Amino acid sequence: MKRYVITGGPGSGKSCVILELELRKEWVTREAAEDYIKLRQAHRIPKPWEEKDFQQKILDLSIQRESRVPRNIERVFHDRSVIDGLAYEPEGTDIYTNILRAATQREKRLDNLNSYDGIFMVELLGEFETTITRREDRKKALELQSKFDKAYRGLGYSPIYVPAGSLDERVGFILKNV
């Protein structure tokens, strides 16, 4: 099975890319953080990202989702990966260490969980808006994109940048590069 990660700064359009890939009959896993935030907000927790164990919950859900991908499929696209968590957590914290361990450990419940075949960094579009689950502004989104790039490169990956364009252009670019 080939495993690809779709990542990028908040508001880059990566979740729309994932949805379009899914509609084109590709296997996908959804982003853990966005879903977890929506769930906690449904439980009347307005800012779940302020919870002490927030990043650990995201890590656990990400690993769970990746482990549920059927092994007999040709390829899967992940809306972010455990590696993305490194951009949100300060170095030296216990959760940073947990994320780094999960991102680098080779013996896992899944065969080579972090052995991704490609990382696609979706560049930000010209327009940008914050939402109840996306609290970052454009400046912070660009900063996070840079941190994602650094995290992946630090683990030996070379992200492929998906240029801004229409959704069809972006998905076509990704499919041509898998």
Provide an overview of this structure.
Strand 4 (118-122), helix 5 (138-154) and strand 5 form a beta-alpha-beta unit. The chain has helices at 14-23, 32-42, 54-67, 94-104, 138-154, 167-176; strands at 2-7, 27-29, 75-79, 118-122, 160-162. The protein has a single domain (2-176), classed as Rossmann fold (3-Layer(aba) Sandwich). The protein has 178 residues and is an alpha/beta fold. Residues 106-113 have low confidence and may be disordered. The chain is globular, with a radius of gyration of 15 Å. It is built from six helices and five strands; from the N terminus they run βαβααβαβαβα. 41% of the residues lie in helices and 12% in strands.
Topology:
Elements: E1 2-7, H1 14-23, E2 27-29, H2 32-42, H3 54-67, E3 75-79, H4 94-104, E4 118-122, H5 138-154, E5 160-162, H6 167-176
Parallel strand pairs: 1-3, 1-4, 2-3, 4-5
Helix pairs in contact: 1-6, 3-4
The number of distinct structural domains comes to 1
The major β-sheet equals: 5 strands, parallel
The averaged pLDDT comes out at 85
Could you state the order of secondary-structure elements as H and E?
A: EHEHHEHEHEH
- Oligomeric state of this protein: single chain
List keywords for this structure.
178 residues, Rossmann fold, five-stranded parallel beta sheet, alpha/beta
